[in-house]
C-alpha cells in the first residue's frame, strides 16, 4: 500500500525530530545517569535526583517521539515484497 503525501511528510518530520533530539543528547543523559547510579558510593538523595533527571529526559523524548510499536515492510514503491522459499525434505530413517 502506497503512503499518502501526508504520511510521507509525517515520516520526514519525525526523522528530523529524531535527529534533533539525538543531537541534544537526551538519551545520552539518561545513559550517564544510569552509569552514575551504578557507582558504589552514591547517596540516597543523589539517587533520587538522578532518577528524576533520567525520567524527565525520557518523558521529553517520548512526548515528541512515541515508541514505534510496529514496522511495516513494503517492497519497491510501497508494493508487495516478493519472497522465494525453498524447502528441502530430509529422510531421517536411513
Labels describing this entry:
single chain; 94 residues; mainly alpha; 3 helices
Strand content: under 5%
> Which class do the helix and strand fractions yield?
mainly alpha
Globular, elongated, flat, extended or rod-shaped: what is the shape? flat
Low-confidence stretches: none
What can be said about the biggest beta sheet? none
Helix content: 55-70%
Q: Rg to the nearest angstrom?
A: 23 Å
Mean pLDDT, to the nearest integer, reads 81
Number of strands: 0
- The number of helices is 3
The helix/strand series, from N terminus to C terminus, equals HHH
Distance linking N and C termini: 48 Å
Question: What this model shows, in words?
Answer:
The chain has three helices and no strands. With 94 residues, it is mainly α. It has a domain at 5-69. The radius of gyration is 23 Å and the shape is flat. The mean pLDDT is 81.
Task: Give a concise summary.
The protein is an all-alpha fold and 94 residues long. It has three helices and no strands.
Give the arrangement of secondary structure elements.
Blueprint: H1 5-24, H2 26-37, H3 44-64
Helix pairs in contact: 2-3
Amino acid at each position: 500500500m502506497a503512503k499518502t503525501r501526508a504520511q510521507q511528510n509525517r515520516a520526514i518530520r519525525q526523522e528530523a525530530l529524531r535527529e534533533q533530539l539525538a543531537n541534544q543528547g537526551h538519551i545520552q543523559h539518561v545513559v550517564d545517569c544510569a552509569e552514575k547510579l551504578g557507582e558504589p558510593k552514591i547517596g540516597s538523595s543523589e539517587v533520587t535526583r538522578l532518577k528524576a533527571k533520567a525520567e524527565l529526559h525520557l518523558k521529553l523524548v517520548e512526548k515528541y517521539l512515541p515508541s514505534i510499536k510496529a514496522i511495516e515492510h513494503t517492497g519497491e514503491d510501497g508494493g508487495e515484497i516478493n519472497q522465494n522459499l525453498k524447502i528441502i525434505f530430509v529422510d531421517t530413517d536411513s
